[in-house]
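Task 17 of the worksheet. Students: predict the tertiary structure of the chain below and write it out as structure tokens. Keep your answer in the requested format; marks are given for formatting as well as content.
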Amino acid sequence: MAEPTTEERTAPAAPNHQPGLRALGRWAWGALTSMRTALILLFLLAIAAIPGSLVPQRPVTPIQVNDFIADNPTLGPIYDRLGFFDVYSSPWFSAIYLLLLVSLIGCIVPRIGVYAKALRRQPPAAPARLNRLPVSATVTLNDPSALSAIADELRRRRFRVATTDTTVSAERGYLRELGNLVFHLSLTLILVGVAVGSLWGYKGNAIVVEGYGFANNLSQYDDITAGARFSETDLKPFAITVNSFHAEFETGPVQHGAARVFTADVTVTDHPGAEPRNEALEVNHPVTVGSTQVHLSAHGYAPVVEVRDGEGNVAFSGPVVFLPQDGMFTSLGVIKAPDARPDRLAFEGFFLPFATVDDQGPRSIFPDAIAPELFLNVWHGPPKEVESGTPENVYTLDTTGLEQVSRDGDALRLRLKPGTEVVLPDDLGTVAFIGWHRWVKLQVSEQPGVPVIVAGVAIAIVGLLLSLFIRPRRIWARLTPTGEAGDGHTLSVGGLDRADARLGLVEEVQALVDLFPDAQDAAAPGRARPAERDRLVAEDAIMDDDGQPSASDAGKDN
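Model answer:
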């Protein structure tokens, strides 16, 4: 084998420009935990939440989602594949949420370590030329103990003080960086609280008619939205009976018909065997059972109807919930009598609390039940041979297999007042409008993350107050002997305000000089020129004596 030449022996190896996995991981972690990335993720999270407010959500309003897809056969399936109908449980929303949480934690933890080290560090040594500080003063005096007096005064003002034979260094305002850390910690707590509520919380709605009750189990809810970790066993076994509901509306010319009072008198049983208690349920005044809250979210009317079939048997009897469609409580509803014989019967129409008929047709002119009437269309059809078992919406009528009842060739339209009964043609039976009740919509919810969110908001306020009102400030003083005999001294005092030197820094430096009434001014307190101030801040005024950023600068890039 030939011996290598001198050039071959001394030539350096070609550098490997391909970073290893460890270096790539460090770069990715640094990018993720930077404050810039956290702000971008927070902005993306806000954008990602927009579809949740513009598009109906399947966990909350599944019927509206189905209607949206039916009305938009092209756009609806695309939205469905993108997860727009369940935004807050979609993979892309969860990914942004988790990345933001990790970014905040990764940003805060190193800053806490840097801040802890900064707290143990002594104030930085005095700059070489105090007259280049934003505010400085120089006096001559004969007191060799001037530095001791200045140090004592600064300690009294809650500065942290370090002294040498010729200088005094003092600093305060360390809590400002603590405020920044506390604020970022509060954002993390809020995100955790929202996540806890999303995983273990639930919110459901149930419509309950006066005189009827609600038991807290899944079968009693009209709709319920729950987190991924929710279980039916998490429902507290309480019951509520709605004894009565009282509503008042404005009758004057100003805001005519506006709501004034909504109050439901309810009886609550916290658990089986517990003593029932009476409560008043009002808007924004929920009933609480443990950590579960029951809110009054809506109300309306439920006309009491009795339907007899062609054989004279009662096919349906009881209150039927009608849903309000406008501010005057024009209410839409459906009455179904599938067991009627020989034909099954169904009715759809409006309940008008204060009915009138004019050129606009039947309508309500006031929300209170002053002159209630029931307007119905009638449908009939043969009984279903086989029940499909598919659940039906109780507020809509599927007319498949049904035919509208007519009289004299025109569709039959009934107008009933309370206490009236109408005989249907063709021996189909009768329908009677007996009276009406009110119904209330109960919103039952449990959000275990709310205490964490409230704590996060409170901590955020504290952090903001610390960041806004704590003023990080540094003061230096140097005593230099002067004169041939060394009996004179020049005292130089300078200050640097890390936030805004316009607020009190000149006065603070002047107060230190005023400790020595016999001193002669060589230079009164004043401000440095902007160029000098900027150069000073860039060079040595913001650095500690070991070349590391100070406490109030720690982690600013994060």
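Marker's comment: The first strand starts at residue 135 and ends at 141. The radius of gyration is 39 Å.
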